[in-house]
Every structure is written in C-alpha cells, then in structure tokens.
C-alpha cells in the first residue's frame, strides 16, 4: 500500500525546514526572509523579530511547528517606547508609537509564537535551546509554553531575558521546570522579579535536590560512587538585573543551596544585594564546593572585603580546573529610536548651487574652525589680504596639534579577563585621549566627580539609616522576648501547682505548696459548703458510734469515741489549719 502523498510530504517537511519554508512562502506569493534562512546550515533560527511583518509570520510558524531537526530557536526584540526627556508623552506621540510598533509586540502574535514553540517541543528530537529576548509574554503565553516544556526531553537552555514576566510568570514556568529532566540552564535576567520569584526558584532547587538524593542513594549501593554530573537537573540559574530581589531573596536561595550538590553557577548581577545578603553565601561556599560561579557584581552595597572573601572561597573550590560555566556579561538591549526625517534647509540648497548664502555660511564655518587650526579647502576664508599669513599659521597650528597628539595619545594596556573586571572598566581602560575631546572630557569628568560625591553622601546616609534601623530591630527583639517571658510567667501563675494531702481525723484534705509558703493564704476549707459536708460526715460517724454502744462492741465504740472527739465548729472562727488537725489526730 503506497503512502499518502500528503503524509509523505509532511514527513519530509518535518526534517527539512528550508524546503518547507520555501514552499509555504510560495503558496502565499512572498519571499523567504534572509534573517530566517541565514543560519539554517547550523540548524539555527536567530532573528530580530521586530523586522518580521504580520503576513510573514504565518509560513515561519507553520514550518516551525512540525519541525524535528532544529537545535536552536531564538526570537529577539529590541523595540522600546522612547519617551521625552522629562518623561511625559502626549497622546499624539503615543498613537504614533502604537502605529509604529512591530507585530511581535501584539498579544495575538506572541500567543501564536508560544503555541508554535509548544508544538515543536512536543514533537522535536533535537531542539536544545529556546530564547525569547525583549518580547512581552503574558500569562496565557507562558502557560502554553510551560506545557511544551513539561512534555519535552531534549531542551537544555531556556532564556527569557527582559521579557518582564514577573513573579507569577516565573511560578508558571517553574511548575514545569522542576519536573523536567533535561533542562540545565535558565535565564530570567531583567524579568522584574522580586524576592517571591527568588523563593520560587529556591523551591525548584530543593525539589530537584530531593529527587537527586534518592537517585544518588541508589547509585551508591554495593560500594559504588555516584556520578553527580550524570544526574539530570538545573546547573546554572541566571537572574541578573532584578533589583527587587534584594537581601531576602538572596538568603532564600542561599538556604536552598546548602543541601544542594548540583547547581554550579548562580548569576545575580544588579539584584539589590547588600553586605547582609552576600554574607549569607559564605557558609554555603564553605560546605558546598560544587558552586564554581557566584556572580554578585554590580551590587554596590556589598563591601569590598566581603566580596573579596567570596571570590577567594570560589577560587579555593574550583582550584586550577577550567570552569564548565564561564562568567557572563549581561548586556541590556538598546532602545529603538524613532528619528524624524530631516529636511534640507534653503540655505544649504543655495550653498550647493553656489549662492551668496552658501558663501556667507562657509565663511562663518571657516572662522569657527580656524581657531581649532583647520581650514577647509576652497572656502571664502582663503580670499583676503593676509591669506599667505593665514596659510603659514594654519601649517604651524597643524604641526603643534600633531605633536600634542603624539604626546597625549597613550593607550592603556588591556586588562586580563577576570570576573572582577566589568565590561565598562575595560572600555574605560581602552580609551585614548585626544586634544579635540579634552575639553568635553574635562567637563564630563567634573560632572562625574560631582555626581560621585552626591552618591557617596547618599550612601553614607543610607548606611547610617540602616545601622539605626538594625539597632532598633535588636532593641525590639529584646523587648519582645522579655514580654514573652512575662506572658509565660503569668500563664503559669494562673494554673494551680500540684497539691499535697494533709490528714485530719482520718480524712485527707489537699493544701497547695504555695499556700503553705504564703502561710495565711486562702484555703479550700474557707468554703462554707466544704465545712457543712465535713460537719455532716462527723454527725453520721457519731450516730454510727451510738449504735455500736448498744451492742456487744460497746468497748470499741467507747475507744473510738474518745479518739474522735471534736470540738463544735464555730462559724465565726478562722478555718481549721494544719496544726489543729494534728492535735485532733
């Protein structure tokens, strides 16, 4: 039985993305995009989604949803709404921005893309990396994407940089990530996470550690040594540029890493961590030697001594071996700018045609530039009585400028790549000083110095406020403990302590130890009902003795009557104490 043509064609399209994409573009009379087909030889799609029109998305998504051979899929968006300098935007400006927004910013297109990735993850056999950068993903999109991650067994890297998914979006994805056995690295940089998102990631670390410990126990049977690197699960977690994580989120992740033996890299650049949060990682690095990268750079509130001690401990843990996961450099996407079209002025048109306005303008330009030692060729400034002197002067100025350039253009040696040197430091170290930009550099340097002084002053104020707040917290904790102790004492006083029996004429009555210590405290005998019951019992006992006197046991009754003789109780007197009971007995 021959195979149906459509089924055969579908199987061929699932293996060959290029031919499938070409056929689908031909069906709708469009050309394949070069950004999609550029890296197909490496089985990779990595494109700028802002440049894809709405009609061009259909063949891309239809070819991608059935594909089984691609290894990397990455959609990036660099479009951002640009505001006025004062931060206010008019309605006309907003309407213009909305009109110019690319289709990838709409919720319809993002949902279609996520649904396509979900179907591709469900059928693929080679897809290892999925990247979304700068694309606004909603909860509906993330729910669809999480279903594909839960079904997939080949995905190793998931990146959602600058997608602004928030804590709720991370929670949706982590419910699928924690049970995925192939995913090794996740990147949630610039996703507006707080300490709640860090807590969600800490729960994922604990969940996977528990599952791995059981597998390690099975592998250690019969004196075998378990291979920890072979076990599936997360190895690198990147949550840079989330300043709301702060110290609380860092402490939660550090607590989860204490019992973990598999996470090797944790990137937390620019996460609002201070010295308190950094110190939470010191005991982790001492007991957990598997962590080889702990990136806490661009957190200015961390003291240099604490940061240096963490780096030393990391170097001790890694030794001289090469790092499996290198230190990252996080680059924020550049905002796309909408530039208005410049119209040529009439003066420039006249200058091009050789009019008088052009000559006067050139003359003014020449007079401005002649002070800097440069005069353009064939200009009105050369026409004059002293043109020969002007030429000599310009030549001398040019020689002096060249000498200055030779003296001042000194390049600094490039620093070696290390985790302690950031990209900005390398950029600053590689700058060259030229005389044309020296004045601007001086002004910028002055502004930077003033700004630095202001920031230092603010930092000192914040450190003082933090110190006072910490001391106040300690005082309140001490006061709270003292109040809790007083409450416990009051509760124990309200409950009666154990009692001790005291005999009185053959009967036992309970008096508490506290009543004996207080000597005159209120006893149970002060109650009228108790006294009446004691009286009634004595009357019955004497009636019983009277009955015995008339019988042959009269002598026994006489002996018992002498021993049990009790004075008549007086209600006006104080209650019977322990001493009177002792004499009566």
Protein model, in words:
By secondary structure, the protein is α/β, with parallel strands linked by helices. Helices cover 52% and strands 8% of the residues. The strands form two sheets. It has an eight-stranded parallel beta sheet. A two-stranded antiparallel ribbon has the order 9-10. The longest helix has 57 residues, at 438-494. The radius of gyration is 44 Å and the shape is elongated. The model is unreliable at 81-87, 335-383, 387-391, 401-426, 428-435, 500-522 and 566-585 (pLDDT under 50).
Give the structure's gist in a few sentences:
The protein is an alpha/beta fold. Helix content is 52%, strand content 8%.
Describe the structure using short key phrases.
585 residues, alpha/beta, 8-stranded parallel sheet, two-stranded antiparallel ribbon, 52% helix, disordered C terminus
Q: Report the helical percentage.
A: 40-55%
Structural class call reads: alpha/beta
Give me the count of strands: 10
Rg from Cα: 44 Å
- Principal-axes geometry comes out as elongated
Low-confidence stretches: 81-87, 335-383, 387-391, 401-426, 428-435, 500-522, 566-585
Q: Could you tell me the mean pLDDT?
A: 75
| Largest sheet data | 8 strands, parallel
In terms of DSSP E residues, the strand content is 5-15%
Spatial order of the strands in the main sheet?
A: 1-2-3-4-5-6-7-8
